[in-house]
Amino acid sequence: MEQEHVRAYPFVLASGIVFISEVIMALTSSHQDHPFGHLIESLPSEKNEVRKYFNPQKLGDPKYERLPFCIRVLLEAAIRKCDGFYVKQEDVYNVLNWEERQNEAEIPFSPARVLLQDFTGIPAMVDLAAMRDAVAKNGVDPNLVNPRCPTDLIVDYSLQIDFSKCAIQNAPNPGGGDGQGPGPRSVPGRPAPRGHHASSSSAQCGGQRGGCSKGSCTDLPTRATAVQIENTPLLCPFHLKPVSEPETALKNQEMELIRNKERLQFFKWCSKAFKNVSVVPPDIGSVHQVNLEYLSRVVQESEGFIYPDSVVGTDSHTTMINGLGVLGWGVGGIESEAVMLGQPVSFTLPQVVGCKLVGSVNTLATSIDIVLGITKHLRQAGIGGKFVEFFGPGVSQLSAADRTTIANMCPEYSATVSFFPVDDVTLKHFKQTNFTEEKLEVLETYLKSVKLFRSLADLSEDPHYTEVIEINLSSIVPYVSGPKRPQDRVPVTCMKEDFLNCLNEKVGFKGFHVPREKQSTTVAFQHDGTEYALSHGSVVIAAVISCTNNCNPSVMLTAGLLAKKAVEAGLTVKPYIRTSLAPGSGMVTHYLNASGVLPYLSQLGFEVIGYGCATCVGNTAPLPESVVDAIKQGDLISCGVLSGNRHFEGRLCDCVRANYLASPPLVVAYAIAGTIGIDFEKEPLGVNSEGKEVFLKDVWPSKEEVQHVEEHMVIASIFTELRSRMQKGSTFWTNIDAPDAVFFPWDAKSTYIRCPPFFNKLSKDVCPPGSIDNAHVLLFLGDKVTTDHISPAGSIARVSAAAKYLQSKRLTPREFNSYGARRGNDAVMTRGTFASIKLLNLLVGKPGPKTVHVPTGQTLDVFEAAERYQRDGVPLIILAGKDYGSGSSRDWTAKGPYLLGVRAVIAESFEKMHKNHLVGMGIAPLQFLPGQTAESLGLCGKEKISISIPEQITPQQELTVLTSTGKSFSVVALFENEMDVTFYRHGGILKYVARSMLK
């Protein structure tokens, strides 16, 4: 008889939801029949609790202790999940013999859980809802469509910055339209300007004896309700007493909930309709922050068995969890659906690069500097697609937060995994985050029993690696990355000179080619009645944001302490600069608040605007109109500075062409300076009211100051309080109504949630794709086409195919929301495919979402041209250069082209995750032979193209391409293994999984 169990969590979001784990149940009920049942041992416990585990050491093979720690995790999973069907004994021994079988053997891996964030999570869950409909129409029980792998969905990407300190007066009205509910309640007026006390209407903090001797705490918003103060307290900068909730955070949060009510209703339905799915409601934190603080256990426990935690997530930065010794990486949203439904991830046994850290960390270097330094070394080492594992004496100098920050950037140096084995530093972190002594004891005892605990003092434990790269931490100095790509690192000491060089250089990855006579252009403008001036290099956006930094207390506290010293020194930030602070979670706000630095950040304009991904994914508030006009008038290269993990030209704002990644304290410093063209060693940040010059060295906090505050503020009580808040959730979320039904009630009027067409005409029989005959080129693209180009995540432009569709549904531009928020609507997302204004299609010759409809010669929107081709029954292909599909993981970068009618993409090289997405949707990723390009082959994009694809195609097979002009050349089908071929023949993973249920 099938038993049930409730999934163990550090918190409960939906009590009464039952979770079923068929594999673990099979192991516990009949482990004597398990092919590796003889490896099962019991873990001793003071409470006589029976915990069983598979101990790979009992294989008696000395090769085990030579394996990298990340490979040991793969081996344990292969042993535990060995069922003779998905995982065979041969797979186990392939992993054990990693040194001989690396880069050759194909292995399956079943992670412990799946992590979804809402931008990629909503289309995954919409697909599962549609799959239920499809299998039911074929006479199959719809409840078969139910995640077998525990799945967490974190709602974090919908936050947009509608309100900030200089936009709040002209706030949009979120009410009306699209059935999203009424507008927000009345909120007290705008906070006083930075650095000035307000009138007597400002809130009083009460001070020590009934009043603040410094006067009204006017840089703080007016008094909020007691509930608001409890949720996000703000302190008087003089007495550190709670005063009020930041007005902008409240309004942004409220706008988010109102704008996205329909999507949230769908998420609520998912939490009811699907077993093994938990939904973390909005405004709790970013997906990786929540994963770090609440979901990750390092060791999982289920049905009396314990085993290493592992995860695959629908975001390329899922690797962040590697910093805590949890194996995990990003997969496509399409692949994640297959894993949720019980399919293992299949991949080639990876090579593992050992990264040996030596030396001491520079005093001024923050985690982001270390990240960028390591990124540079590893990118140059050519480790694409490999696992990286860190070891060496330098590892002990890195805190758990430092490690997770380094691991977060793993995709930027093209590795699959960036793993730090569990050690004493990891245990200290978990003790600090309120793990009980019992949990810590179980964790440590188990990991040491299976040799998954790393002793940094014992060099004899160093595993064997494919190769070793040594990095001296003392060589890493503070860097800034930009102005267009994260890999273009510039020492802070050289920033002024580098920016001037960028102005001179020809247009390219770094250059802007501004004529020398125009490089000194200055444009005066008015803002709030005061005259200011902009020039090349002026900072107009400064955002302390992104899970990359917000998870790291030392980095954020450095920024806060710098702000405190700057305010005390009399420095301010110009009011027209769009500043924002979006903490990764409430924990960050709590420790910034508790340490007394949050009010100083607020005084400089870095007000908490909410929780989740905002500016980092392009959801920034518009710049003041006067600033935009000044930029356009002078054709200025204005700058944005972001403490994020990725940027591209125009990602933050269309008119902001130079964008830099920097650590949070440097973001604050550049905001104060007001320009990127400053030499911090020789030039002051600013001049205070007394005419005294203040330099960066005068306000930069020492490492000892930061550590002292961190040790006293980032304590277990913080995590306890926030877990309590997580359990309670928000009243808005609690009150959302959602249907309690097996099938989702699709609403034909909805502009957020639509039943996708992926399962139309689904049948049991497979119809292989076959050859592609007389295809036209939809787009002829160059190098570095990113997922932002293919499927933007930010705001929907008023002049776009998606906008026309939404306007036809009687929505105003104010109600468009973002592409990311509408990923549950295929009509919007198909129209949004290749909708980036930065897309350069060589058929057209200038940037924009346009292409040439070859039969008529007309220049049309990409969507309109694709529609015409589909009406005429013409298949489509895309030609591209190097690194096609680089950037954030987005399944719509494959779903969109599929719905446009694209059958194949021929490129010089692909980003691996995007290539997997294409395969997952039945689109063939084809690669030019080495040394060949579309240009070298004389392709112009206007010829017809035919590709011979055999029914029994094999991995890495060469295919012949013929053009209507008589040219012939070969390409390689980038199917990595037989599973890829199977998915392609079925028309993608989704159809493969659905057909398996029909059979």
TrEMBL record:
<dbReference type="InterPro" id="IPR000573">
    <property type="entry name" value="AconitaseA/IPMdHydase_ssu_swvl"/>
</dbReference>
<comment type="function">
    <text>RNA-binding protein that binds to iron-responsive elements (IRES), which are stem-loop structures found in the 5'-UTR of ferritin, and delta aminolevulinic acid synthase mRNAs, and in the 3'-UTR of transferrin receptor mRNA. Binding to the IRE element in ferritin results in the repression of its mRNA translation. Binding of the protein to the transferrin receptor mRNA inhibits the degradation of this otherwise rapidly degraded mRNA.</text>
</comment>
<dbReference type="GO" id="GO:0017148">
    <property type="term" value="P:negative regulation of translation"/>
</dbReference>
<keyword id="KW-0963">Cytoplasm</keyword>
<dbReference type="InterPro" id="IPR001030">
    <property type="entry name" value="Acoase/IPM_deHydtase_lsu_aba"/>
</dbReference>
<feature type="region of interest" description="Disordered">
    <location>
        <begin position="170"/>
        <end position="210"/>
    </location>
</feature>
<keyword id="KW-0832">Ubl conjugation</keyword>
<dbReference type="GO" id="GO:0046872">
    <property type="term" value="F:metal ion binding"/>
</dbReference>
<dbReference type="Pfam" id="PF00330">
    <property type="entry name" value="Aconitase"/>
</dbReference>
<protein>
    <recommendedName>
        <fullName>Iron-responsive element-binding protein 2</fullName>
    </recommendedName>
</protein>
<dbReference type="InterPro" id="IPR044137">
    <property type="entry name" value="AcnA_IRP_Swivel"/>
</dbReference>
<dbReference type="InterPro" id="IPR015928">
    <property type="entry name" value="Aconitase/3IPM_dehydase_swvl"/>
</dbReference>
<dbReference type="InterPro" id="IPR006249">
    <property type="entry name" value="Aconitase/IRP2"/>
</dbReference>
<feature type="domain" description="Aconitase/3-isopropylmalate dehydratase large subunit alpha/beta/alpha">
    <location>
        <begin position="244"/>
        <end position="674"/>
    </location>
</feature>
<feature type="domain" description="Aconitase/3-isopropylmalate dehydratase large subunit alpha/beta/alpha">
    <location>
        <begin position="99"/>
        <end position="160"/>
    </location>
</feature>
<dbReference type="InterPro" id="IPR036008">
    <property type="entry name" value="Aconitase_4Fe-4S_dom"/>
</dbReference>
<dbReference type="GO" id="GO:0051539">
    <property type="term" value="F:4 iron, 4 sulfur cluster binding"/>
</dbReference>
<keyword id="KW-0004">4Fe-4S</keyword>
<dbReference type="InterPro" id="IPR018136">
    <property type="entry name" value="Aconitase_4Fe-4S_BS"/>
</dbReference>
<keyword id="KW-0479">Metal-binding</keyword>
<keyword id="KW-0694">RNA-binding</keyword>
<dbReference type="GO" id="GO:0005737">
    <property type="term" value="C:cytoplasm"/>
</dbReference>
<dbReference type="GO" id="GO:0030350">
    <property type="term" value="F:iron-responsive element binding"/>
</dbReference>
<keyword id="KW-0408">Iron</keyword>
<keyword id="KW-0411">Iron-sulfur</keyword>
<comment type="similarity">
    <text>Belongs to the aconitase/IPM isomerase family.</text>
</comment>
<dbReference type="Pfam" id="PF00694">
    <property type="entry name" value="Aconitase_C"/>
</dbReference>
<dbReference type="InterPro" id="IPR015931">
    <property type="entry name" value="Acnase/IPM_dHydase_lsu_aba_1/3"/>
</dbReference>
<feature type="domain" description="Aconitase A/isopropylmalate dehydratase small subunit swivel">
    <location>
        <begin position="803"/>
        <end position="929"/>
    </location>
</feature>
